[in-house]
Amino acid sequence: MRFFLSPPHMGGNELKYIEEVFKSNYIAPLGEFVNRFEQSVKDYSKSENALALNSATAALHLALRVAGVKQDDIVLVSSFTFIASVAPICYLKAKPVFIDCDETYNIDVDLLKLAIKECEKKPKALILTHLYGNAAKMDEIVEICKENEIVLIEDAAEALGSFYKNKALGTFGEFGAYSYNGNKIITTSGGGMLIGKNKEKIEKARFYSTQAREKCLHYEHLDYGYNYRLSNVLGAIGVAQMEVLEQRVLKKREIYEWYKEFLGEHFSFLDELKNSRSNRWLSTVLIDFDKNELNAYQKDINISQKNIALYPKILKLIEDLKNEQIETRPLWKAMHTQEVFKGAKAYLNGNSELFFQKGICLPSGTAMSKDDVYEISKLILKSIKA
């Protein structure tokens, strides 16, 4: 049997709602189901405003733009993340400054303070990634942004269904972004959502997302925009998927505990932050890991491309599982090691490079059974003991 990392898992009402869209003949961007999708996200996250878009990348881009980020502005950003967290900064020709991670996989608070102190000018915004659904240290980070008048944008693309102190991740900052890509905890095949506290700014983002068309009979434009809105068909899928989100979170967390049960003696499983609930989007583990290896140094650099070799056991494990038709992958390769960002500033402690070298993402599909996880775990143990 073949196992993917995080395949789509339909909830039951997707086809029913899609049929309603087809009967209405509204096979177009926007529409009733896009509105219902936005409302369902507001209800779940307790966010005041929501804007359905075609990707979380679009959500981050619009958040930066309505936050007033312009060319040469400084935007602080997680280094241990996927490139889509950073690309929108480049779209606006602003300057990313990368911050390494702590034991949560998320931005290190001490490095964040240092970066703010040493920046050539006051940072305009912070894009904070909640990696693999894990909460960052929100109390400290919210306070730091408030004290320094920095706009906090939460990249919660991987963290829909995750909470910190009973508050949804994505709702702490001025803006939050969720992803509905095909491999996320729920999916519309492709899609995103921008949430935010300020209705005027979300409505401005809505305006930009539909090509910035003025309210005229003809197409009048005083500014440029984007084709970022979601289709009514995908909105229908989103409504159905939101109905089962909580079930998916509970199953993801259960899968993580199963791996811990079967592999806990041979791998390290990082704890979620106290008073938080991770959605455990992907089950991640570390091999031959010692917490004393964390925070090996503290330094700032101008980025030059850096080759980092995967730990031999991880490389072998990925290859062995691939031969058994089991999809795995390393943890994210930090942005400060990528040539595309050569010359940018980064504040480092060695953690993200360590996690990349010794970490692996395991199959976490919500249709998996405990027996499935057991069989995968047996193959993992066979590989590392060979």
Q: What does this protein structure show overall?
A:
There is one protein chain. The chain is an alpha/beta fold. The protein folds into two domains: 229 residues, Type I PLP-dependent aspartate aminotransferase-like (Major domain) (Aspartate Aminotransferase, domain 2), CATH 3.40.640.10; 141 residues, Aspartate Aminotransferase, domain 1. Helices cover 36% and strands 16% of the residues. The chain has twelve helices and 16 strands. The strands form three sheets. It has a nine-stranded mixed sheet with strand order 1-9-8-5-4-2-3-15-13, sandwiched between helices. Helix 1 runs antiparallel to helix 8. The radius of gyration is 21 Å and the shape is globular. It starts with 13 loop residues before the first helix and ends with a helix.
Short description:
With 386 residues, the protein is an alpha/beta fold. The protein is built from twelve helices and 16 strands. The protein has two domains: 14-242, 3-Layer(aba) Sandwich (Aspartate Aminotransferase, domain 2), CATH 3.40.640; 245-385, Aspartate Aminotransferase, domain 1.
